[in-house]
Amino acid sequence: MEAAAECPECAAVVPIEADARSGEIIECPDCRSELEMASVEPPALVLAPEVEEDWGE
């Protein structure tokens, strides 16, 4: 049985692969948001942080 979690952006059901790991980035099939695996057991997703440029500051 494949696991699933709810997208925090659009509430769609996002399938989770059996070998998924915490910290892995997954794309929501409905809204295309980048999501991060917050936990594997139970499966939980959060919005992935946006990568920002440092520009040497």
TrEMBL record:
InterPro entries: LysW. It comes from the Bacteria. This is Lysine biosynthesis protein LysW.
